[in-house]
Design a protein that fits this description.
This is Peptidase inhibitor family I36. This protein is of the alpha+beta class. The chain contains one helix and eight strands; from the N terminus they run H-E-E-E-E-E-E-E-E.
Length: 127
């Protein structure tokens, strides 16, 4: 009984933290290659205007995170995605001109790096 009450209390605290935005309950902010004030899940889109432009994005720790890449140019788009610390396998997303491609993964709150490995400008966003 005591355990059930404790679990209910923890669940309520987590839910309140998500609704209010209490720092540390969801996930710490991610980092970009340009400096502080980085995108967290749900913020964006982040522009990756040229080859080798990259950003580090946070992910949800309690559920799946959706990463979407949009090709805002007129050439072939290719986005390289990799989980950081510990380094995960590399995944590539092909994005046709003027379209958006999304993947949904369980990264367990580990930051991911998204890098433009094409000559077409891309944007990325997590949900």
């Amino acid at each position: 009984m005591r355990s059930a009450i404790r679990h209910a209390g923890v669940a309520m605290a987590l839910a309140a933290g998500v609704l209010v935005g209490t720092p540390g309950i969801s996930h710490a902010q991610g980092a970009t290659v340009t400096g502080p004030g980085y995108p967290v899940v749900g913020q964006g889109p982040v522009s990756l205007p040229s080859f080798s432009s990259s950003v580090t994005l946070s992910t949800w720790s309690w559920t799946t995170t959706t990463l979407c890449g949009t090709n805002v140019g007129d050439g072939y788009g290719l986005l390289r995605v990799q989980q950081l610390r510990p380094a995960g396998s590399v995944e590539f997303m092909e994005i046709r001109p003027g379209t958006t491609t999304c993947i949904e993964r369980w990264w367990s709150g580990v930051d991911i790096n998204a890098m433009n490995v094409s000559s077409s400008p891309l944007t990325v966003r997590t949900y």
